[in-house]
Write a structure and sequence with these properties.
134 residues, two-stranded antiparallel ribbon, 6 helices, mainly alpha
């Protein structure tokens, strides 16, 4: 899996966020399926040449967002129903552009992490869309 992850250490985006975004994208596009085991924190840190704490933080954020499940002695695996699964299924029923679906998933994850309810997230997006559409 680490071959599919490339971090830009000169980017203003922190490495943990790049790693979190890349792993969530691999889950979202189906490259990592439910139950897939992720490398250990130490192994992935060594492969990517970054600190163990950076990988640990990315894994914690992925777990908080519902993408992965971490268990002592069993490692970290992709959750049985990751957050984007419903949207991916909806996308197959509707012809929504993948980049728009990805942006919606990113908004939903960030809003959830900030403590927004699903209803508050919808209200926020509706308000923004109305302002932008005049």
């Amino acid at each position: 899996m680490s071959a599919e992850i490339v971090l830009d250490l000169s980017s203003p985006v922190p490495p943990f966020e790049q790693l979190r975004a890349r792993i969530s994208a691999l889950v979202d596009d189906g490259s990592l399926t439910p139950g897939s085991r992720l490398p250990s924190v130490r192994a992935l840190a060594a492969d990517l040449g970054i600190a163990v704490g950076t990988v640990a933080r990315a894994y914690r954020e992925l777990e908080a967002a519902g993408y992965v499940v971490s268990r002592r002695r069993h490692g970290t695996t992709v959750a049985e129903s990751p957050p984007g699964q419903d949207v991916r299924e909806a996308q197959t029923r509707r012809d929504w552009p993948a980049d728009v679906v990805q942006a919606a998933e990113d908004l939903a994850r960030r809003a959830r992490a900030a403590g927004f309810s699903p209803e508050e997230t919808v209200d926020l997006l509706t308000g923004v869309a109305r302002r932008m559409h005049g």
